[in-house]
Amino acid sequence: MSKCTLFDKVWDSHTVGILPSGHTQLFIGLHLIHEVTSPQAFAMLRERGLKPLFPELTVATVDHIVPTDNQARPFADSLAEEMMRSLEQNCQENGIKFYNIGSGSQGIVHVIAPELGLSQPGMTIACGDSHTSSHGAFGAIAFGIGTSQVRDVLASQTLALSKLKVRKIEVNGTLKPGVYAKDVVLHIIRTLGVKGGVGYAYEYAGTTFEQMNMEERMTVCNMSIEGGARCGYVNPDQITYDYLKDRDFAPKGKDWDEAIAWWNSIRSDADAEYDDVVVFDAADIPPTVTWGITPGQGIGVNELVPKPEELPEQERFIAEEAYHYMDLIPGAPIKGTKVDVCFIGSCTNGRISDLREAAKIAKGRQVAEGVKAFVVPGSERVKQQAEVEGLDKIFLEAGFEWREPGCSMCLAMNPDKLQGRQMSASSSNRNFKGRQGSASGRTLLMSPAMVATAAIKGEVSDVRELLS
C-alpha cells in the first residue's frame, strides 16, 4: 500500500532519469520568466546556437524593474529599459507568451500565474526568482532557480536536482482576530530558524491551513524559502478547485472532471511517511513583527526585543549585528518603534485579500504626519478589482499613495527605495541589510494590516487595537 507524500508522487511522475552525478533530471511543466534573470539565459542559449525546446511551456511578465508611478516608455532608468527591451525581443523571437504592461494581466510573476490558472496541482514549476515556492499553495512543487538553470530549462525543459526530504508542518486551530497567514509563517520561521528547512520540502497541513483561502496559502508557501526550505506546498482540496475553476488556463468541461480526479490522487496518503513532523497550535501565534536582519528574527508585537542571553548561543552573533544595524535595544519593546515608510505589496502580500484587510484598517483614518505610505497591487487584475471595490479611494483618502503593479520596494530594483536610515514597515518577505534600496535602510516585516496600523500610528502598533 502506498505511503507517499504529494512531493514523492509529483517528483516521481516528472522524473526523466537519474544522472551519473546522482541528481534527478526533472521535467518542468511550467517555466515562468521575467526581465531580471532571463536576458543572460537567452544570451547563453544564443552562444550555443540553441532555442527554447518547449516555448509554449514558458510564460513571461515584467515586474522587478517596472516603475510603479510613471510607467511611460522609455523608462527613465536606462538599465531597466534595456532589460525590458531584451525581454520583449526574446519573447517575440521565441514565440513565448508575454504579459506586458497594459495587457490587463501584467504583474508580479507569482501573482499572475495563479490568477491566470497557470499554477495547478501536481505540476513542477520553475522561475528565476527565489519566491517561486508560492505556487506550492496549489499542490505543485515549485522551485526558485538561478540564471544558469533558467538557461537549462529553456534548452531542455528539465532541471538537475537532488531529491529533498519532506517535513510536515502541522498547524491546528483557528487564528485569533488580528492574526494572519503572514504571522503564521513568520512564527514558523522564528521557531524553526532560517536554516531549519535546508534539504527539505515543507508540507503545510492541519486544520489552520485547511481553513485558509488560496491567497493565504500562497503567502505561507511564498516564505518557505525564508525558512531554508527549497519549496513548500499544501495538498489540493475543494478550496483549490473552487479558486481554479473557470480561470484562463484551467481545464474545461470533461478535462476539468478528469483533472480533479487526478489532483485528488496526488494528495499525500493518509499514512504517508515523513522525514520530520512539527506541530503548532494556532492559538499560540500572535501578530508578529521582525526586529532584526533575517526573517527568523521575529517576535510577537507585544514582546520585547530578545536579550543575547535569551537566545541560543549560535544565534547571538547575528543578533548582536542586528541590534547595531537596526538601532534597537535588547529588552526594549518593539511596539512603539517609529517608522518612516509603510509599504503594502509584494509577491507575499500584494493580492486582493491583502489589500482588503489593509483597507479595513485605513478606512476613516489618516496616515500619521511624516510617514510615507503606499500601496502597490500585485497585478493589473488586482488593481482593477481593488478599484471596482473602491479600495483605492479608501487608501487615497487616508493619505496612502496608490500605485501601478510591480515588485516595488520589496527588492527596490526600481525607483521605490528607502533613503538613508529610514525605517520601513513592510508586507514583503526579506529584511536583509540594504534589501529595500538603501545600504543603511531598515525593514520590519509584518502583515498588510499591521503595516496599515503602523502607517496610521506612525510606529509599530498592535493591529488588534484598531480592529472593530
UniProtKB/TrEMBL annotation:
SUPFAM superfamilies tied to this protein: Aconitase iron-sulfur domain (SSF53732)
Alphabetical GO biological process terms: L-leucine biosynthetic process
Catalytic reaction(s) noted: (2R,3S)-3-isopropylmalate = (2S)-2-isopropylmalate
Domain of life: Bacteria
Enzyme Commission code: 4.2.1.33
Transmembrane spans: none
One example GO MF annotation: 4 iron, 4 sulfur cluster binding
Binding site for [4Fe-4S] cluster: 347, 407, 410
Domain Aconitase/3-isopropylmalate dehydratase large subunit alpha/beta/alpha: 8-458
Biased composition (Polar residues): 421-439
Pathways involved: Amino-acid biosynthesis; L-leucine biosynthesis; L-leucine from 3-methyl-2-oxobutanoate: step 2/4
Region (Disordered): 420-439
Cofactor binding, note field: Binds 1 [4Fe-4S] cluster per subunit.
NCBIfam families, per database record: leuC, PRK05478.1, PRK12466.1
Family note: Belongs to the aconitase/IPM isomerase family. LeuC type 1 subfamily.
Function of the protein: Catalyzes the isomerization between 2-isopropylmalate and 3-isopropylmalate, via the formation of 2-isopropylmaleate.
Subunit structure, as described in the record: Heterodimer of LeuC and LeuD.
Name by which UniProt lists this protein: 3-isopropylmalate dehydratase large subunit
